[in-house]
Specification:
453 residues, alpha/beta, Rossmann fold, GMP Synthetase, Chain A, domain 3, 9-stranded mixed β-sheet, 13 helices, 33% helix, binds zinc ion
């Protein structure tokens, strides 16, 4: 398909604007946020029946006092949250279904003006969103910022050959983004993370990407293939996407391709890019594009430096679907201080995984909530090819993939860590498996809770 030139030129302009924001001071950034938020709120009240109905009397309330918008609430009120009367959820769902069945080019705009994507939906209902050309250019520019901060330049003499190992599902935002940017400037190879490693290695060897973007859970495997001499890549950067990058995967990637090669990103379908690492290796929030509040289970702000259990996001550039204090169930920690790179954006200490991945295990005094970081700490060094913890009716099944051999030590470490937290009477069964099974979207969840009853 010929590239959408109006989209590409808008994206280039949006990208140049974002580059200027890197040189702002903190005060200019704050002023920009306040103005952009005021415009977003007045647009939502004027054009969205949902916001008009539910936010009456709160026109002048500070952001922190506005109600939270959950995914369920968005999906239950989709047509009314939407500010364009011509868009209906039933039609957007129809478009997604059509995309899935015929594998049509997801980069081509629907009805000539909308780009549509759905969230992965591993838990509960998936969220569906649509962006117009102006908004979609901002989405693309926010993802391009990852490359810009990583120092991967692009021009016609120096195209960024990009390989993306993720999902080929055409309803997934990464597929829509990949199809939208595929051009002479960014020749893109998209691979399904569920493909056997041998086929991935062969396709990547043929393509020779300058930029390798991969589900974080696949990076360790690909780095292992490089270290074993099967994969022969020399990427300028390796971008860990969509999942938390396990420490062992990071270490393997650094051994395979160099110490400064790994770039971390944090994004969501609803917001596009939220944060990525600068050349100093520190995470910065994209505060000019999205307001981020780290909160606890009651949606109360947690102090900088403390871990929240979820975050509330307010993307500042969307108008078709204003999302004001939209809940994402990721645990993140904001960090105080500034970075030698000089960017004005606040620091993100860590993305600690999805709150859904927190397990409730039996204890003497009732259920004990166990955060996924407990298993990261216990298992990462023992299982370089991946691991998974699944809660079953009788206890926990721990799977160690590939080259792992220390099942007894793994069991002891998990039991020790859980006992320390007060978990009692739990059966822990450790199994050595060839590989971790991937979901239909190609992800390999580290922690699996039992299906909600
Ligand atoms: Zn920095």
């Amino acid at each position: 398909m010929a590239p959408d030139l109006r989209l590409l030129s808008r994206t280039l302009v949006a990208r140049a604007v974002l580059e200027r924001h890197d040189r702002w001071d903190r005060r200019t950034l704050r002023d920009h946020q306040a103005r952009a938020l005021a415009r977003l709120r007045s647009h939502a009240l004027a054009a969205s029946p949902y916001y008009r109905r539910t936010r009456a009397g709160l026109e002048n309330a500070p952001l922190s006092e506005l109600p939270v918008l959950t995914k369920d609430e968005l999906m239950a009120n989709w047509d009314d949250v939407c500010t364009d009367k011509s868009l209906r959820l039933a039609d957007a769902e129809g478009r997604l279904l059509q995309a899935e069945r015929s594998m049509l080019d997801p980069g081509r705009p629907w009805r000539g003006r909308w780009w549509v994507a759905a969230t992965g939906g591993t838990t509960g209902r998936r969220a569906v969103l649509a962006w117009n050309r102006i908004e979609w250019a901002q989405v693309l520019a926010s993802y391009a910022r990852v490359n810009d901060w990583a120092g991967v330049g692009v021009d016609l003499r120096n195209p960024v050959r990009t390989a993306i190992v993720s999902s080929l599902n055409p309803t997934h935002q990464s597929a829509v983004v990949g199809a939208s940017i595929n051009s002479r400037l960014v020749p893109t190879l998209r691979l399904d993370a569920r493909t056997p490693v041998k086929s991935l290695v062969s396709a990547l060897n043929d393509f020779q990407p300058r930029l390798l973007v991969s589900y974080a859970s696949m990076l360790g495997t690909l780095a292992g293939a490089q270290l074993a001499g099967d994969l022969h890549l020399s990427p300028a950067k390796v971008i860990a996407a969509s999942e938390v990058l396990p420490a062992d995967g990071r270490a393997a990637a650094q051994r395979a391709w160099g110490r400064d090669v790994v770039v971390d990103t944090y994004a969501a379908t609803e917001t596009a890019g939220i944060a990525s690492t600068c050349e100093q290796g520190r995470w910065h929030l994209y505060e000019d594009l999205v307001i981020v509040e780290a909160v606890d289970d009651d949606c109360q702000a947690v102090p900088v430096g403390a871990s929240g259990t979820r975050l509330l996001v307010t993307p500042l550039f969307t108008r078709t679907f204003p999302l004001i204090r939209y809940e994402l169930t990721d645990a993140v920690r904001l960090e105080p201080g500034s970075c030698p790179c000089g960017r004005p954006f606040a620091l993100l200490g860590a993305v600690e995984g999805r709150t859904e991945d927190t397990l409730t295990l039996p204890g003497a005094a009732g259920g004990v909530r166990v955060h996924p970081v407990v298993f990261h700490t216990a298992l990462e060094s023992l299982s370089p090819d991946g691991w998974q913890v699944e809660q079953t009716d009788t206890g926990l099944v721990v799977r160690l993939a590939g080259r792992a051999t220390q099942d007894h030590l793994a069991r002891a470490r998990v039991l020790d860590a859980l006992t320390e937290l007060g978990v009692t009477g739990l059966q822990v069964d450790v199994r050595l498996v060839p590989s971790i099974e991937r979901t239909p979207l190609g992800k390999a969840p580290l922690v699996k809770a039992p299906p909600a009853s």
